[in-house]
Amino acid sequence: MREIKAELIKDNVRDLFLHASSFIGEDIYNKLKERYEAEESPVGKSVLRQIIENNEIAAREKLAICQDTGMAVLFIELGQEVMIVEGDLNEAINQGVREAYVDGYLRKSIVDDPVFDRKNTRDNTPAVTYIDIVPGDKVKITITAKGFGSENMSRIKMLKPADGAAGVRDFVIKTAVEAGPNPCPPIIVGVGIGGTMEKAAVLSKKALLRTVGEHNADPRYAKLEDEILEEINKSGVGPAGLGGRTTALAVNINYYPTHIAGLPVAVNICCHASRHAEITI
């Protein structure tokens, strides 16, 4: 049994959020530059140039990419041969988030009660954490700082099995296009298909973490990703919703077995400031 100190978890969570808040992924940065060159709309081209410049300034000055520094979401793959010692895993995660947002002067956006009091917790905790037990003696931590301009545009629908691929395609396209300028396009579209209602939603958020340009390993789903992306970009919503052919940078689909009577589909939208990072301890 391998022992890992809770403090090590805390330190890594803090460092991951601080890094992701200022440094956009190279895959997204390169895709933005690619779309800038291809964009036909002068206004759309101008918006993409400003987004690229913003990312460069954020990295150079170690500033937040966006004023909405997001809600902390973590996916933990915990090896079954690992024992967390000298502290509580969940508290270590939240302390890491707390230190990142307080010490990094990142905006604190979390309220303690979603309906009545809505008092700011003042340290961006608690985080939303998903823990999977996996073989081995390592811990993989994947974090994302999820902004809510895009989160609010996400949708889930319980389709009928007979709706098939066409039903999935139409629902995803409709969701992305109707979101319009609200999620700060260009967007990344995460799609979760199968499982149960909540499983589809988690799958869709995990799909956002895939490297831009990397397709689903199943060629049928890869083809569906391309078809949906093409239609979304034909919509004309464009960068910042001001018109153009770059509404989305990628469509990423994850799927999971489901019940014979169901076809759950979740769409989780992320803006171009797709802040995520990972480390394996």
Structure, briefly:
With 281 residues, the protein is α/β, with parallel strands linked by helices. The chain is built from 8 helices and 10 strands. The chain starts with a strand and ends with a strand.
What's the alpha carbon Rg, rounded to whole Å?
Answer: 19 Å
How many domains in all? 2
- Average pLDDT taken over every residue: 97
Strand order of the largest sheet: 4-2-5-10
Question: Which CATH first-tier class of the largest domain would you pick?
Answer: Alpha Beta
Model regions low in confidence, pLDDT < 50 over at least 5 residues: none
CATH architecture tag of the largest domain? 2-Layer Sandwich
Percent of residues in helices: 25-40%
Number of strands: 10
* CATH fold-level topology of the largest domain: 60s Ribosomal Protein L30, Chain: A
Instruction: Give the amount of beta strand, in percent.
Output: 15-25%
Shape annotation: globular
Attribute tags:
281 residues; alpha/beta; 60s Ribosomal Protein L30, Chain: A; 2 domains; four-stranded mixed sheet; 8 helices
